[in-house]
Structures are given as C-alpha cells and as structure tokens.
Amino acid sequence: MGEGRLVTMIKYCVLFLAVCVAATTAAPALANWEIISEGLFTTELGIAFTTPDNGYAAGDSNGVGPTILKTTNGGKNWTDCQANFGIDLLLLAASAADETVVVSSVFGELYSDDNGKSFHLSVGGGLSQSIRFLGTDGDGGKKFGCAGTYGGKQGVAISTDGGKLYKPFGTEKLYTYSRYAAFPTDTTWYVAAGQFPSD
Questions:
Q1: Out of 4, 29, 61, 146, which residue is the most buried by the measure of CB atoms under 10 Å away?
Q2: Does the predicted TM-score (pTM) go above 0.85?
Q3: Ranges under pLDDT 50 in the chain
Q4: Whole-angstrom Cα distance, residue 75 to residue 57?
C-alpha cells in the first residue's frame, strides 16, 4: 500500500472516529427531550416564552375557534386567556416580551400589554405569517417585526409600541407570500417567501 493511500485511509479513519464520537456525545442530549403538554389545540401554530416558566401558545380548536393559552409553570399547566376573536379567525404565530404578547392572524395582529389578560386588534398591519420580538427602541418601546401581506404587497411590518401600531414596508419584487423575516439591524431585513404547489 502506498504512503499517500495510507495517509488518506488514516484521515478517513480519524474522520469516522470523530463522527462516531460526535454522534455518541449527541445521543444523551436527545434523551433530554420531554413532552410536557400535548393535545392543547387542533392546530398549534404559535408559541412564545418570556421566561423559562411564563409563556403563551396560540392555536385553533375545532368547535372552539382561535385560542391563546398561558402557562406560568413551564408548560405543565395552561389556562385560557379568554380572548374573544370570533370563530373565523386563524391564529398563525406568537411572540412575547415582558408583559407584552403579540399574536398574528389571517385578519391582522393582536396585542396584549397586560400579560395576556386582554387582547386588542392592532392598527396598520395585515396578514402576518410570522412575528418576532426585536428588542426595545430608544424610547423603551417594544419593537416587533412581522412578515406577510400588507396593503396587497408582500413584505414586513414594524411596530415600535408593543404591537399596537404597525408601519408596513411592501415590495412589488416578491410574487409569492412573504412568510418569515429576520431583522439583524433597523435597516437590514431578510424575507423568506414562497407558497405551496398547487398540483
């Protein structure tokens, strides 16, 4: 066996051992996954936690309609936020920061500024597919960014007051649905757009 081939075989052997060690080390971490709650909704589309214990889940249940649930013990128990939206609303995503909770839906965004005790319809948004908490602005207002359809255009919408009022930024360049967005800076945004095949 030539020296070059032996070195290559040793490299492959070392690489194989490294992969085996990584897989073995990762295996115990997978064992730590635990189902805490299940069967909360018919469709569970949004989840947001402000601490390891305090969180919200948004979804829809057959016969009940849209529902927002809250947990204060890390998901072991959930209570209904008693938000009345009407049966036709489809909740899509959720985000939260401190006492503020923002939920997106097919008919606009909803916000709570009292830890989920009451929800109100936001102004200026649209059909948001996703939502993210972006931090606070210079005045201490909580910033949220959404991706979706606003005024018939695909793009993003930004709120700087905890989800009460949104300013949309649409573009003619996207011809499929704006689904998800990343907001690394105040002026640089990335949008993932697409739609399911019709065939």
A1: 146
A2: no
A3: 1-25
A4: 9
